[in-house]
Amino acid sequence: MQNYQTLIQASELAALLDDPQLVLIDVRHDLGDHTLGARKYEEAHIPGAHFLAVESDLSAPKTGRNGRHPLPAPEAFAATLSALGVDAGKQVVAYDQAQTTYSARLWWMLRWLGHRNAAVLDGGLDAWVRAGFGVTAVVPARKPARLVPSLSESPVSVETLIGHLADIDYTVMDGRGAGRFRGINETIDPVGGHIPGSHNRPYTQNLNADNTFKSADALRAEWLAALGGRTPAQIVHSCGSGVTACNNLLAMEIAGLSGSRLYPGSWSEWSADPARPIER
C-alpha cells in the first residue's frame, strides 16, 4: 500500500477499503451537541469506518483550567487506537463531515504518538458522497493490535508560552475566525480576545469553497506570506481548544513547511486564568 501522510482523496480511499492495512476512523463532531457525531455515525458512515469521540477519545477530562479539549495521556490514547487495530504498520485515514478540523486533530495526535502513516480524507464525508461512493450503517468488527507510542511532536505548554511571549521563536498563529480573535462575538469561551502578540490565520483560509484543501503551491505561497520571514519552527499554532489549529498544522505540512508546533490548550486554557494577559 502507498503511504499517505497528509491528504487522501475519495477515489484513492475507495480503492483501499478492502485492504487489511487500512484503519478508517470517523471523528464527526459538533461543539453544540456532543452526541451528534456518534448518532450520525450510527445512521451512515464510510464502509469499514470505526468511530472515535472528540470529547472522550481524543481528549482528557476537563478540569476547568486545562482547556476544552486537553490531550489525553499518550499511553491511554495509544490504547484507544490499538483497540481499533492500529499498529506501526497500519495506514490510518481520518475523516469528519467536511472542513477536516476534527480529522486534522486526529492526524496530529497520531503524529504526536510517532505514527506518520496517517492521512485526512480531503473534503471529508461530503467529498466521499459527492464522488458517488456509498455509505453504510454496519459497524465493523474490531481487530485489536498494539501501537507503541514514540512521541515525535513537541506540543507547547501554557507555562512555556507564558515564559516566551515576546520571543519570535514562539510566535503564536491563531486559527480562529477574525471576530473571535479580536474578542468580538465570542460564542464558545467565556472570555474573548487572544494571546498577546499572536497573529491570526483563520483555518478556513486553507480551504476551497467545497472544503477541500487548496493546492500545495497555493498554501505554500499564502503561508510564506503569513510567516513574514519566520521559519515554521518558530510558529506555535493555537485556536479555541487545540482542534482547528491542527488544520493549520496540516496545511503547512501539505505546503512543505514542516516543523511548527501546537499549543493544545489554546485560548480556552489561556483565558481560564484571569491572571494571564489578554489582547483584544
Order of helices and strands: EHEHEHEHEHHEHEHEHEH
Level-2 CATH architecture of the largest domain = 3-Layer(aba) Sandwich
Could you state the CATH homologous superfamily of the largest domain?
Answer: Rhodanese-like domain
Strand fraction equals 5-15%
- Count of folded domains: 2
Mean pLDDT: 97
- How do the strands line up in the largest sheet? 1-5-4-2-3
User: How far is the first residue's CA from the last residue's CA?
Assistant: 49 Å
What fraction, in percent, of the residue positions are helical? 25-40%
Structural notes for this entry:
It is built from ten helices and nine strands. The longest helix is centred in the last third of the chain and has 12 residues, at 216-227. The mean pLDDT is 97. The chain is globular, with a radius of gyration of 18 Å. The chain is of the alpha/beta class and 280 residues long. The protein has two domains: 7-130, 3-Layer(aba) Sandwich (Oxidized Rhodanese, domain 1); 158-270, Rhodanese-like domain (Oxidized Rhodanese, domain 1, 3-Layer(aba) Sandwich), CATH 3.40.250.10. Helix 4 crosses helix 9 (245-254). It has a five-stranded parallel β-sheet with strand order 1-5-4-2-3. Strands 7-6-8-9 form a four-stranded parallel β-sheet, covered by helices on one side.
